[in-house]
Amino acid sequence: MTRYTSATDADRAEMLAAIGADSVDDLFEQIPEPLRLGRPLALPDGMSEAEVFERLAALAARNEDAESQVCFVGAGMYDHYVPAIVDAITQRSEFLTPYTPYQPEISQGGLQVMFEFQTAMSELTGLPVSNAGLYEGPSSIASAGYLAMAATKRKRFVVSRGLHPHSRETLATYAVGYGAELVEVELRDGETDAEALAAAVDDETAAVFLQSPNFLGAVEQVEALGSAAKQHGALLIVATDPMTLGVLKPPGECGADIALGEGQPLGNRLDFGGPSFGFFCATEEQIRRMPGRIAGETDDVDGRRGFVLALQTREQHIRREKATHNICTAQALNALGAMVHLAWLGREGFRELGELLVRRTAYARERLAAVEGVELLHTAPVAREFALRLDAPVERVLERCAERGIVAGYPLGREYPEYEDGLLVAITERRSKAQIDDLVETLGAAIQAEIGALVSDSATKAPEGVS
Amino acid sequence: MALTETPMQAERARTIYEKSKPGRRAAVLPDAEVPELPLAELIPSDLLRAEPPRLPEIAEPEIVRHYNKLSRRNFDLDSGFYPLGSCTMKHNPRLNERVAALPGHARLHPAQDPKRAQGALELMWLLQESLGEICGLPHVSLQPSAGSHGELAGLLLTRAFHADRGEERTKVLAPDTSHGTNPASVTMAGYEVVKVATNERGGVEMDDLRAKIDEDPDQVACLMLTNPNTLGLFDENIAEIAELIHKAGGTLYYDGANLNAVMGHSRPGDMGFDIVHVNLHKSFSQPHGGGGPGAGPIAVSERIEPFLPRPQVVRRESDNGGGPSFDLDLERPKSIGRLRGFQGNFGVFVRSYAYILSLGGDGLAEASETAVLNANYLKARLAEGRAGERLPVAFERHCMHEFVLSGKPMKKELGLATLDLAKRLLDFGFHPPTVYFPLLVEEALMIEPTETETKESLDGFAEAIEQILAEAESDPERAKQAPYTTPVRRLDEVKATRRPVVRQPLPPPEGDGHRSVGRASR
């Protein structure tokens, strides 16, 4: 179906005459006959806008989202409230529809946003240099590994098991290409095992990867853990949750050479996992090894202040196989969303939000730990997410809670066999005290029901929908 | 000319940090509703930060004004012609934004139990099927986040494919004119790039290809190509190229940057490609966003399928007569593993699937036809008059969806570089074409109008070029000093690289860390 095009029959005739072709088919004659499809694509016919909307709305209606259920799942992406101005600004044509700012004279808006965003991320992480954004969290961590190899001329990564499982797996995927070796360090009581880490780092180690708060929600002793990296001349790479940096000591003040992570909590929707952005900050020393776009300040010929893509000599379109990275995408629109959200929160609001998360999390953790059949998986300090152990099968308990409209958390057994009984619970400012209280009650009842079901004949008492 | 500043030029750039004043704010947060214990009782104080980050302090009306004003300092596709070669700047339908924003999509948590995300998984599966049909390849992974990410995926797949056969190959062939991401991806995947020469038609130089393969056929892992090539011409030798690479045991990789030329007309799988990446932000209308987000799904042949990234969306038929169900398959023993978190850029998938539904199979084929018609028409218009003389087309024959002109005569005869022409076009309200690429054409201008432009837009662009060339005959300085009307004029890019200033310097905290203890009044 013709859509979004304007060529009328008369236009076509005139255009073909100017070209000197008899038909549009003539233009396709350069494709050798055997390689022409010669049939219509086996796809449905085009639809009206109203029909497409209904079709997509029907698919959307088959998902249980954070609007229809109360969502206590985090595990890297969080159901924060994104202020209305974020949508209003990111949907403006001038931000939504241009390409990468290769013509800086007509891209000052986007370039200045990048500069402001870099400033914000630098402030959050306590490191002087930020890029304009990467694809998302885990692949940014893999990119940091590439930088560390270039910086140290070494090929060994020591990785805490507290790193997001997707980050560890992505790093492992990339490491095959890098020819790098991965060594994993276990957790002890929810935190990276300091002794095991110290033993794992050696003079061949390019980087030590930590995450704080880690996947189990624990705020790590980054400074102490990082000393092993310093002793051996390895880079300290710290993944973090940007929403906690209003209250937690920034990685840059804990000795991190690189601080990075998933940017979704800032101004981005859940979107079933993307698009979002990765942030990537580093010490001055690493600026010429950074991946991704970086906006820089300069002057025009009349001396006006302006912004351009700086340090392009790192990039693939100039350096080709010697580039610091292959990435061209800055997730500029997602980074804009983050910048507007951060400006809206402001200096005070950002800290207040961090404090709110810590306090509500402490409340939820204390109340849930008191529930019969629940205990804390670890007692390490937490900011906005924490791990529990349940006395009943986690997936079945979750199923019971879901039937009551609550997604109670993330089942840790999906990624950590050693925490088969583990449940990870996340708090945002959208999760009210009443919702937390409701979770306490619902989870408690679900656990009791499951224990009861296990004790009696489970075949007849199994809840509906559980196989 | 333009000795007086435009109002926008007169207003100097000020960042949001320079508009900040202590005490101002926008956000009002919910009450904590729980005991407001001192933070240090909840987290050891050595793990807490002393001062909050110096984010701007500014009220909502001024945030809105700031970013609206900034937006006006951008040129965008919704405002004008954007013939940036190889970037496929086609219309971004607003319908797609609307459906992507539905809560069932936008507020769906990525770790949601697949049983409770059936609509999302079905949408992904339908998009996989659609892209597979368009590419002529049976299996698709939506996971890569961009074209370059798809390239890396393709190379890691190639490595896994060979390793599975007990082989380790070291070389990846790529044309010397390939997009810079190709060689950069090759290095990241641990291969060595071997450049293949380009013939005068922008195609693969067959003798050189044969020679590079014959040097050491056992070491050839892959050949990366785009077809139509960087001159916008279809490489007629593609079947023979595929045969040569496959005979040597390598894989053939298709950079999908130019797929918009051939949708519904010719399929990379039928050409012999094993792995294809598709730029959803090019052919499938995802807005470019000023440099992302996009997505770079890959379609692959049977022999590559076992190695696709985890997780893979699968459709399972019901045992009891019910409808099919959809799931995330994590049990893929030969998989290269994850390339990123969760399932990929789902919001982009929604937009691109809406686009495919809107056009249908026939509409996609027609989109390609109109893209090719528009490109050939603009090429014909630019073959007339001064442009025909000063900006000859690099290769004289019908093009596909884009074409390349050479500014060499213009530079020689008028002293105008391609860059000058590009900058002067800004004053005429056009985004310039891609410049200085491909490298084999001197002073290149790579022009891709796309199917969504009117004949009138194309005529307007051709007339602007004519006018600039006419003006340069009497006053070449005018273009050399251009632009005049943009928010800023030519910028010193060297300075930004030699002495990079990449963030706003901010005054030190005023020792007022206690200030944030109080809450905002409502």
Topology:
The complex is a heterodimer of chains A (467) and B (522).
Chain A: H1 9-19, H2 24-27, H3 49-60, E1 70-71, H4 84-90, H5 93-96, H6 108-125, E2 129-130, H7 137-152, E3 156-160, H8 165-178, E4 181-185, E5 187-188, E6 191-192, H9 194-200, E7 205-211, H10 222-231, E8 235-239, E9 258-262, E10 278-282, E11 295-299, E12 305-309, H11 316-319, H12 332-369, E13 374-376, E14 385-390, H13 394-403, E15 406-407, E16 410-411, E17 422-426, H14 433-455, H15 458-461
Chain B: H1 7-10, H2 60-71, H3 94-100, H4 103-106, H5 118-135, E1 139-141, H6 147-164, E2 171-175, H7 181-188, E3 192-196, H8 206-215, E4 220-225, H9 238-248, E5 251-255, H10 268-271, E6 275-277, E7 298-300, E8 312-316, E9 325-329, H11 346-381, H12 385-390, E10 403-406, H13 408-414, H14 418-427, E11 434-435, E12 444-447, H15 455-474, H16 476-480, H17 493-498
Parallel strand pairs in B: 2-3, 2-4, 4-5, 5-6
Antiparallel strand pairs in B: 1-7, 6-7, 8-9, 10-12, 11-12
Helix pairs in contact in B: 3-11, 5-11, 6-7, 8-9, 11-15
